[in-house]
Design goal:
The protein is mainly α and 512 residues long. It has three domains: 207 residues, no CATH class; 77 residues, no CATH class; 184 residues, no CATH class. It is built from 26 helices and two strands. Strand 1 and strand 2 form a beta hairpin. Helix 22 packs antiparallel against helix 23, helix 24 runs parallel beside helix 26 and helix 25 packs antiparallel against helix 26. The relative contact order is 0.07.
Length: 512
């Protein structure tokens, strides 16, 4: 892999961006050997032990700088042996090590790992503390969200590639997830070294990663609900978790470094004149799995400290308590959008708390989702998304039939809405945006619904049925149906994709 990465770096510098296919690793064994993971650990616990052993081997064979470069691509605390090896270096050698690392183009993840080391070795070395502050301030700069989105696009592209890479199928979910991050971070460093524009990276890798949707139907994939899955990573929550890890939960460091206000502005959003927590901060990561022992679940203590600094009486309510309150409100009024929005923000597609499932079923059975969409399209679709995301956990086959009916009625309403505004010549930019959002959201909901296990039909057959019903009610949604169907065909095995070819033929006959 060292030779592969060196050749790729030369290719980027001398000839510019290659075809995206060249960013895929040559073989799976080389990638594992690069991290000194000689065997595939069958369980997460064995994997954690393997990482500690790998750190020892890498430090002994390649030195601390190369060991850091390779292991800093994983979103988990640096191995104890690596940290102790750096701390054991004489001061002059620590400076050489840090200079060597700084000459590399670190990802945002790598920067947090470096700050973690700097904080641990900074006792009696003000230079290291100043450097740690500088790196954190740079991470909080206004330009960083754009850089982060480009890095995230690479991770999501690598994840899509690995999911459909036959050589990676032998890996357990935790190993594949770790290799996604390890290889993705190598690519991030290479592209940054070559001076690739973050906007170009986000565009190219983001568009390619978007092509494949079928992972959503893989209910046997434990990595799908993992906190380190690239689709769950967002700038605000990632930054807060990274800061908590890097600073060792010493939240007062931010205050002493004068960075507290910057972090506060990162985690808060103003809505209707009120400050509320960023949606990604609100999510209950405890409902996700954590196969890698990632630090991405951290951050609650830092958020509590920041809130208390502006309002000493403020208290961060637990996510479960917020969802319980939302369910109680919806039992009284199932159209209460703020309660639906709270569930959507805190859980998304993570499993609902077991003791609330029966109440949630009662709520969705009495909710008229089509009526909510008619009242406010944006809000109504978010409510329907919230229901669809939880459907897989409810074990209620009748609700699948119900949501399919809701989709048909909503499609009928949106078709009428579209015709009315076009007939009156009053279709505005806002109307166009609403309709585009509705088309994309309805098909994303259909994808989620079709992944629910059980029933006589396979997911592709269910999706084909819903598409035909939806486009019959709302013909202008046909272009989106065609687009999503083509994306599914990119990833589905041939024997499972037959119903989708039938849909494409039907859409062609429908003049789409």
């Amino acid at each position: 892999m060292v030779l592969y990465y060196m050749k790729l770096a030369d290719r980027l510098v001398q000839k510019g961006p290659p075809d995206l296919g060249e960013f895929a690793p040559p073989d799976s064994e080389s990638l594992l050997r690069h991290l000194r993971l000689s065997g595939v650990a069958s369980s997460p616990d064995q994997f954690h032990q393997s990482i500690e052993l790998a750190a020892r081997i890498l430090v002994d064979e390649e030195g601390v700088d190369e060991a850091f470069k390779r292991l800093a691509g994983l979103p988990r605390p640096l191995p104890h042996y690596l940290v102790q090896s750096v701390k054991a270096l004489p001061y002059d050698e620590q400076r050489v090590f840090i200079k060597t690392i700084l000459h590399q183009s670190l990802s945002m993840l790598g920067c947090f790992h470096l700050v973690c080391l700097l904080v641990q070795v900074s006792s009696g070395a003000p230079l290291f503390a100043r450097l740690a502050r500088y790196i954190i301030a740079w991470q909080l700069s206004e330009e960083n969200p754009g850089r982060f989105e480009s890095q995230l696009a690479i991770l999501r592209w690598v994840n899509a590639k690995f999911y459909h890479w036959p050589a990676a199928h032998a890996w357990p979910a935790h190993v594949r997830l770790a290799m996604v991050w390890a290889h993705g971070n190598q690519l991030i460093s290479l592209l940054q070294d070559a001076g690739a524009d973050p906007a170009w990276i986000a565009s190219q890798f983001g568009r390619a990663a978007d092509q494949i949707l079928t992972e959503v139907w893989d209910t046997n994939n434990p990595g799908w609900l993992d906190v380190a899955h690239p689709r769950r990573v967002h700038y605000a929550s990632f930054t807060v978790a990274g800061l908590s890890y890097a600073l060792g939960d010493d939240c007062q460091l931010l205050s002493r470094w004068g960075l507290q206000d910057k972090v506060h502005s990162l985690i808060m959003r103003e809505i209707n004149g009120q400050e509320v927590l960023d949606v990604s901060i609100m999510q209950d990561h405890a409902r996700a799995s954590n196969l890698l022992g990632s630090f991405l679940t951290r951050g609650e203590r830092l958020v509590e400290t920041l809130l208390a600094s502006t309002d000493p009486n403020s208290k961060l309510e637990s996510p479960q308590s917020l969802v319980e309150n939302a369910i109680a409100s919806l039992l009284l009024d199932s159209s209460d959008f703020l309660s639906w929005a709270a569930i959507h923000a805190i859980l998304g597609d993570l499993p609902l708390y077991e003791h609330l499932k029966e109440d949630f079923k009662a709520i969705v059975r009495k909710t008229n989702f089509a009526e909510l969409v008619q009242g406010d399209t944006w809000q109504g679709l978010i409510v329907l998304e919230t229901f669809a995301a939880q459907l897989i956990y409810l074990e209620a086959p009748d609700l699948y039939t119900e949501i399919a009916g809701h989709l048909r009625r909503i499609g009928r309403h949106l078709a009428q809405y579209e015709r009315l505004h076009r007939f009156n010549g009053a279709e505005s930019t806002t109307d166009h945006d609403i309709l585009e959002y509705a088309r994309s959201t309805l098909f994303e909901i259909a994808l989620a619904v079709c992944g629910v296990p059980g029933g006589e039909m396979a997911p592709a057959e269910r999706f084909a049925e819903i598409v035909e019903q939806l486009v019959t009610e709302w013909p202008s949604a046909g272009a989106w149906a065609k687009h999503v169907t083509h994306r599914l065909l990119e990833g589905l095995p041939a024997q499972q994709s037959r119903p989708l070819y039938r849909v494409l033929i039907w859409l062609r006959a429908y003049n789409v």
